[in-house]
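Ticket #4471: structure export looks truncated?
Reporter: QA, pipeline team
Priority: medium

Steps to reproduce: submit the single chain below to the structure queue and open the exported record.
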Amino acid sequence: MQDNSELCYHCGLPVEKRIERDGHGFCCQGCAGAYEMISGSGMLDYYEFRTEYAPRPEDRTSDEIWELIEKQSTVSSVASNVNGPRSSQGSTSPNGHSSSTISSKPRSSGKSPAPQPQTENAEADFLIEGIHCSSCIWLNETMLRSLPGVLHASGNLATNRLRLGWDPGIISLKELAHRIEGLGYRLLPLKRSEASEAQKNYARGLLKRMVVAGFFAGNIMLVSVSLYAGYFGTMDRLTRNFFHLVSFAFATPVMLYSAALFFRTAWASLRHGVLSMDLLTSAGLAIAYLYSIYAAFSEHGEVYFDSVCFVTFAVLAGRYLESRLKLRSLYLIDNLQQAETPFARLLASDGSQQIVPSETLQPGQRILLKPGESLPCDSRLINESSEVEQSLLTGEFEPVLKHRGDLLLSGIRAIGEMELEVERSGDHSALRQIQ
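Actual output as written to the record:
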């Protein structure tokens, strides 16, 4: 008879009907399939280094949605003089950069200049739902990079973002999304409202646990004060035992709900031989709680139910503040992305102006910046002098005087009309590097 206490090797959920692969038990065909995919790709180290169980594979996102998203690449197509394709082993763009559409970059065939059909390399940023640790990032990056047609894949643990470059002529975005979903994660198009949604949900969960712990910690302190006073007075045994039972009743919801987060992550790390802070925290809470139960019912020793509540509350409060800071950093990144100017005024040799995508600008080209506009790329000032506003980069709103030859970083705002020479553009600009 199957032991229902067995946990799925992939997702950690109880196994009701065991599905075996390589001696490991799985709860469903989805988890077994995810294991086979990971094993077949030679990435079994993921199970050794992860700190939490992987998400359980769910239903796939509609194919029509991914086909529609992939068609958006035509909206943001750029001119034919854009930089060449990225190599799958070349430099990776800075993590955390956001784009609400898919940018397509023409890829040259590398032969004679005779007219030939061109394929386009696509690049976009996404949000990966279900990321818990650096092993999750490593697993997704390694799996994607092993696929034909994937040029580069770079994840960011702090923001759960993935920058992905691929050749749609070899592999479709729909297929890439399905491969990630096969591992138990979910690929989402990155929008401003979605970029911080996962962090918001995490912070909201922490807040609920923290409120429960704080409520019982405040009430248990009233009982503890009475107990402390009774130690130096004439509190009878019956009253002391009653206060012990009340303290036990207050501490139990904290252990079962608020502190459950620590025990889950501690158990996952213990199963894989990894020591974590949650392991120490949960061990201390468990020892204090169990000893207090013994002391309360045996009437020997002191109880520490109040310590259990306050330690849980303090740790959750710290994590909640950390999650809020991460959320704030996501908003700052979004603000930086909004400062990007998608178009620029390119100055021709005859003095005429042409509106072009800022991504197509090349070093040495001249651009014109009107008052109030943001600089789309790092450039050197051609004017004798001009004032700029750099609050986005420095936080200072006072105008700064710049002179001929000074390097102006992308994101600054022009106060007067300026003529500049492009120094660095696209992913090499300062604003992109910050993101």
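Status: closed, not a bug. The export was complete when the record was re-opened. Leaving a note from the reviewer for reference: DSSP finds 13 helices and 16 strands in the chain.
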